[in-house]
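retry 2 of 3: previous attempt timed out while embedding uracil. Reduced batch size to 1 and resubmitted. Inputs unchanged:
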Amino acid sequence: MTWSERQRAMLAEMGIRVWDVSPADEPVEAEAPASVSAPAEVSVPAVADARPPRTSTETASDAPSPSALASTMDWPALREAVASCTACSLCESRRQTVFGIGHPQAHWMIVGEAPGEEEDRSGEPFVGRSGQLLDNMLRAIGLSRQAGETPDPAKQVFIANTLKCRPPGNRNPLPDELARCEGFLIRQIQLVQPRIILAMGRFAVQSLLRSTAPIGQLRGRVHRYQGVPLVVTYHPAYLLRNLSEKGRAWDDLCLALDTVEASAGAAQHAPAGG
Ligand code: URA
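retry 2 succeeded.
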């Protein structure tokens, strides 16, 4: 897809009107902010290899939670550990855990916040209105959470949340819940080995980058999580409430896409051997 086609597809999927003044003109968009183009270059990470280890005083309790033991688990063991986790009180109110979904070696990893009511019911992340918007955004750049018969990992996403259980009434995750659950997400990222992580919303950012800075300050450049490029963007639920920010989310998606494509290109041109 050329840049212009990508831009058009994304804007259309996101409900932003585009029209041509003349064939030579770039698309003009009606609702999005003025800068809908990707940044000219990927900026130097502001938070290099984020996620320093927690200190003991930050740890939720002395007893290791199942997620803390996840670091050597394979996919089946990890899935089972999540399903049977009782490390925090969310296990009492959940219908089921929401593990995550997607190709196990997807090049893209999306990290959201926590299951809502529909996710708690279905067991799959992002199936409500936020999920529909997310799927539309991903589809616009040729990505999918559904692996076809011969899935190309480069076109696949793995979607996970910082919490695997629904907080009652969709309240915000508590620090203790995040701490007890984070080993699961860390292991998922280790197993998927994504080429790019999209951190959606402040809880994903807090977990992965250990930053409480506003999304608006962190987006627009490439961070690193354990060496993996990470792009910060708005949570789809926020976009549903703040339609004018969709243009910025589009920028973020394009930044992520350019980052993946640049690293794939660099890998192709790297000299063989060591
Ligand atoms: N919001 C999230 O962050 N995750 C979900 O799975 C659903 C809504």
